[in-house]
Q: What sequence folds into this?
């Protein structure tokens, strides 16, 4: 994937990052901004391949271009249980789900 300034990308954890520039230095040249859970802007850096760390896979790795459409996948299991999993659009293999909800109709309960 070619990471470009001014474009939005999805992180492995489903969050959105807007890439500001590619001038962050040799090790982590990609600089971008995300929004924290309390609404604050957070400035972060990545490798040119979109890795957040050199120590393996991270939930903050850049994994795909961002899309505002989030498809929902429904999985049916034994005994009528249903799991609904939402992924960012353009999700790629290995991306973590944004939200997991397990529905157990026999007891009418939702488990996160």
A:
């Amino acid at each position: 994937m070619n990471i470009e300034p001014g474009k939005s990308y999805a992180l492995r954890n489903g969050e959105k990052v807007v890439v500001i520039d590619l001038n962050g230095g040799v090790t982590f040249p990609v600089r971008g901004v995300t929004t924290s859970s309390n609404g604050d802007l957070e400035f972060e850096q990545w490798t040119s391949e979109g890795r957040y760390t050199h120590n393996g896979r991270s939930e903050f790795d850049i994994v795909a271009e961002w899309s505002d459409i989030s498809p929902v996948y429904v999985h049916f299991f034994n005994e009528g249980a249903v799991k609904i999993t939402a992924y960012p659009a353009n999700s790629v293999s290995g991306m973590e789900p944004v939200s997991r909800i397990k529905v157990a109709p026999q007891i009418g309960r939702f488990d996160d």
Observations:
- The chain is about 0% helix and 40% strand.
